[in-house]
Amino acid sequence: MRFTPENKDLPEKWYNVIPDLEFSLSPAMGASGYPLGQHDMNSLSPNPIIEQELERKKRDVPIPPELRNLYAEWRPTPLFRAERLEKKLETPARLFYKYEGGSPSGSYDLNTAMAQAYYASHDGAEHIITATGDGEWGVSLAIACNHFGIKCRVYMVRSSYDEQVYGRYIMEILGADVVSSPSEDTSTGRKVLSSDPKAPGSLGTAISEAFEEAMSRNDATFAWGTVMNHVILHQTLIGLEAQQQLRRAGFQPEICIGAVAGGSGFGGLVFPLYREIQHGMRAIAVETAAAPSLSKGHYAYDYVDTERLGPMLQMYTLGHSYIPPGIRAGGMRYHGISPLVSALYREKLMEAKLYTQRQALEAGIMFARSEGLVPSPESSYTIRAVIDQAVACKEKKERKNILFLLNTNSNLDTSTFKDFLEGAVEDKYLLEDQVVAAINNLPKM
Amino acid sequence: MRFTPENKDLPEKWYNVIPDLEFSLSPAMGASGYPLGQHDMNSLSPNPIIEQELERKKRDVPIPPELRNLYAEWRPTPLFRAERLEKKLETPARLFYKYEGGSPSGSYDLNTAMAQAYYASHDGAEHIITATGDGEWGVSLAIACNHFGIKCRVYMVRSSYDEQVYGRYIMEILGADVVSSPSEDTSTGRKVLSSDPKAPGSLGTAISEAFEEAMSRNDATFAWGTVMNHVILHQTLIGLEAQQQLRRAGFQPEICIGAVAGGSGFGGLVFPLYREIQHGMRAIAVETAAAPSLSKGHYAYDYVDTERLGPMLQMYTLGHSYIPPGIRAGGMRYHGISPLVSALYREKLMEAKLYTQRQALEAGIMFARSEGLVPSPESSYTIRAVIDQAVACKEKKERKNILFLLNTNSNLDTSTFKDFLEGAVEDKYLLEDQVVAAINNLPKM
Fold first, then answer.
1. Do residue B421 and residue A143 have CB atoms under 8 angstroms apart?
2. What is the assigned CATH class of domain B66-106+229-440?
3. Which residues have C-beta within 8 Å of that of residue A122, sequence separation ≥ 6?
4. In chain A, which residues have their Cβ closer than 8 Å to the Cβ of B7?
């Protein structure tokens, strides 16, 4: 059942959670070892993005009208109640999902891609450079760049470039310049290739390459797909809309669930409900067993990228040198989690659950067959946690309202489910020894 | 720019164009050689579907409330104005598109799939059997069947089964039973395989196989993906909504454009605008050069399927034995066009244009880059015609309102554009000699 979105649900302001936090946050650190400031970020980002990244006082950040008009091309997104899934599970819980997979790119990434392209365009940038795993983020950025007449260049993790080809195809159809990372185009890439010409790449390396190129060019900016404060700020559209839509339907969320890769989708859903958290709402982040930064990581300052070109953030991390085993939801292979999400977890304001990819995919198929929407592998982790909570509600005879985020559709990766049905997907777990080594390798502060 | 859909845009009744026609229609013919009646169709379809197929008097056909609630999960679909494309083309024309690619299946096919599954379910059917090319139709039917707890079995053209695998994957993820056609499961399939074990299959053969199985089972019905009157009836949701949405925005359509495979999407868009046609609106059907039934076919009674198990329809046809060359938009390889669309064309109430697949794909990429939505190869034919009309408006300095149908997104076929960009897609044309032979092979009436 869909709760029809109404125009007024589309916010006029993003929500910055920081002023509402009851604890203090450590600053990000620049390469200099001093707190990250405007001067560290000038070579990477336009001014309004830097201001949003560093903003600690303003709760409400106005959305420029031109940008809001673009959001209105696909937002507000619908809120659904998964009544057929409830029935199948025989749960008394009510399952509500905010569906971002109907955006032009098929994912929530377009929320921040459009904002970053807007600000880059007003800053006079002619190129935006970024890094992507399977391509959901890159596809969104390619669409946003076209809207502003900006050229888009994407360093794509080589294993995805070679195997998860649909993301690459769509970026190329959209006119983006897609480079297999590690590449010969940067000194970072050449360094990696010289030690291993067949290196499969990692998101950490691809980010380093994109940083290097963006920093060396005057006509280009870098765009962040997740992790950073401003990205979550843009993604709060999700939670702000969901809150309005649930309220109008007469329901109060009691459990809120989302998968975490870098944490921007989860933060975007949950932060606008921060008051509800203070009043007892549970917030559950869902991680992959192959890279569970919250559940098994270390809370420390760490680099955002493998080659340590970017800032250091205080976050739950498995170490920037940890390379998780190859799992299907490639975006979830990142070593850290947004500092804001990390801080909430540290303060015990939220929980984390971890699942293997087979547990997730099984749940994704159950959802597809009952609700008629095929989710992405990443969204399937969310669904798995939702199903477990719904079953717990059944056992305890509790009629809870569960709100979750279906952030991406299956466009770019259908073969994972097919391989799973054919028994060709194996579970992958944290490589504990490698994490120990990577944690030893954390920057000394 | 999106015109936000409003709940009231979702019709309470489908529109049957037949009572409004100013000319008479020839009946469909059953295998007996007599006009098709209830008794011929009992073994294939539930009663309400048969009534809808044969209805000639009632203009408005009520949508059952349970079904309308399901439609409300993704309808009304949005109407967009392609302002960025207008700007790129420097055309004074206004380009409006009704976007059906945001449905759960990614295509307009779900409009009739849901209706047919609804009626089959109320008729007690436990299985629905159908035929599909690339899989858009099959995916929609699989979703609809799940909503009603019906098992879905799909004969899929072998060349698509082997090559356009994403449609098959999604049907299987949704739990449908997908059979490569020609198959060993039917006498039709065995006959084709015995003369050519490597036969690539065709939609005509797959329909014959599905007919054969549905007719031989008491617990199963057949579902039609296009061509038939009742399918177009269900698809009139598209035109009814678009009419309301355009009217509210203050515009009157002056040219209306849609690609035709079997004709149901085009009919669904255009028939509700029949009065506008009578008042001078141009309606343009867009065909592929490989199978242009309207432009180069014969107006005659012909079978809907290769093995002549189904009814004969009076329509523009290339002959049921014509097998068009392999083009990418597999659904457009059908030999005939809906009798209703054919009749309008015969009466000169509409036009037809034909394009090669390279002409279409080039336009699809231009649209993707300006509008940010990647269309299906079939929708790209529509876009090509729209661009040509928009350019003509520029030359004539005419500010026309052009309404077109974007019926399907690119989910199931991204590689076609990629192959096109790499120069690996060749134009294919009508095989004229084979059409001459197929026309000679038409049934003698």
1. no
2. alpha beta
3. A46, A48
4. 4
